[in-house]
Amino acid sequence: MGWQDRPYYRDGGQAARNPLGWLMTGSVPMFTAFGIRVRAHASLIIAMVLVLVFGVGGFGNTFVGRLEALSALFLIVLLHEFGHCFTARWVGGSAEDILMTPLGGLAFARPPRRPLPTFLTVAGGPAVNVLICLLTGAYLLALGYWLPINIFLWSTNVGGGHAIIKVNVPTDAINFFVLLIFSTSWILLVFNVLPIYPLDGGQMLQAILWPRVGYYRSLKYAAITGMIGAGVVAVYGIFVGSLMLVVIMFMCFLNCWNLNQQLKFAGAEEFDNPDAVDYSASIYAKDPKPRRSRKNWFAARAASVEEERAEQDRIDTILAKVSAQGMNSLTWMEKRALRQATERQRRRDVERNRR
């Protein structure tokens, strides 16, 4: 079996020699559905044990309550990430991996680099939450229950049997779980559409601004808005005593800060090329043919060659590591880099054969 055909997504990593490294970068394969591999980050397993056994995080006062809350949360986040993946494929992109982490899911979706496909791919996740809320909400309303759409009425013990304040709670297990699904999906929806990059709301804001102010300035505005929004929500988290919310907002703030610094360092020319793809084209357009000046063509060609050279150097380094230490010495990111490089090379070979 050649190196390009090996299942690099299977995380052997350095677990045997470096358990701490595996905890930081390792993952456990769960299943594959619709050609999308779903994995659980190593830290997620530890977090679930802490929640279920020791009650960390305020998910309920009983083991059963915590199990119900975690199950609802995991299911909804997973469906949310599948929404991103399916939408990316629908607009002509690709999606092959979902990584579940303690702070949510991460869908490795790659839509075409245009505003509308990007917006639709990002919006595909919240759209799943909307659908879940509509279905479960209609069911609960038909039974005569009030819907807890005001998230400020919720206590932190969502799965402990007294999850809702001022809202009638079903006493039977099935209807209570349906209510838990509705409320969890609703809270995640409201949280995700906040204009804080890289949350879905921040990414949708960037995609909306992209055709109006350019890719560079849209990212800059999204980063600045995200830092302000993260600060405001973090203050609210401190006020209500939610450590998890403060931690998430702190990480969002750092993400926006790093993005803003990268934008300052790179400059607008690297992001906004007036001779690049016409982003007003249809999301179904194939092989767009941008008009380039001769000078820009040579510059783009040189950049492409340099990028391919850097990629080849990285692959050579990884292969040298495989030769010296074996496949199990690779981290998940190195395996992913090999898989992506293999896929790009196969596409190049197909294009050459067509000519």
Q: Explain this structure to me?
A:
The radius of gyration is 23 Å and the shape is globular. The protein has ten helices and four strands, in the order αββααββααααααα. It is α+β, with helices and mostly antiparallel strands.
Give a quick summary of the entry:
The protein is 61% helix and 8% strand. It has helices at residues 19-25, 42-54, 63-90, 115-142, 173-192, 200-213, 215-240, 243-266, 294-325, 332-354; strands spanning 27-33, 36-41, 94-101, 104-110.
Helix-strand layout with pairing:
Elements: H1 19-25, E1 27-33, E2 36-41, H2 42-54, H3 63-90, E3 94-101, E4 104-110, H4 115-142, H5 173-192, H6 200-213, H7 215-240, H8 243-266, H9 294-325, H10 332-354
Parallel strand pairs: 2-3
Antiparallel strand pairs: 1-2, 3-4
Helix pairs in contact: 2-3, 3-4, 3-5, 4-5, 4-6, 6-7, 7-8
β-sheet strand percentage: 5-15%
Low-pLDDT segments, ≥5 res: 1-16, 153-166, 273-297
| Major sheet summary line | 4 strands, mixed
User: DSSP helix count?
Assistant: 10
- The overall pLDDT, averaged over residues, is 77
Notable features of this structure?
4 strands; alpha+beta
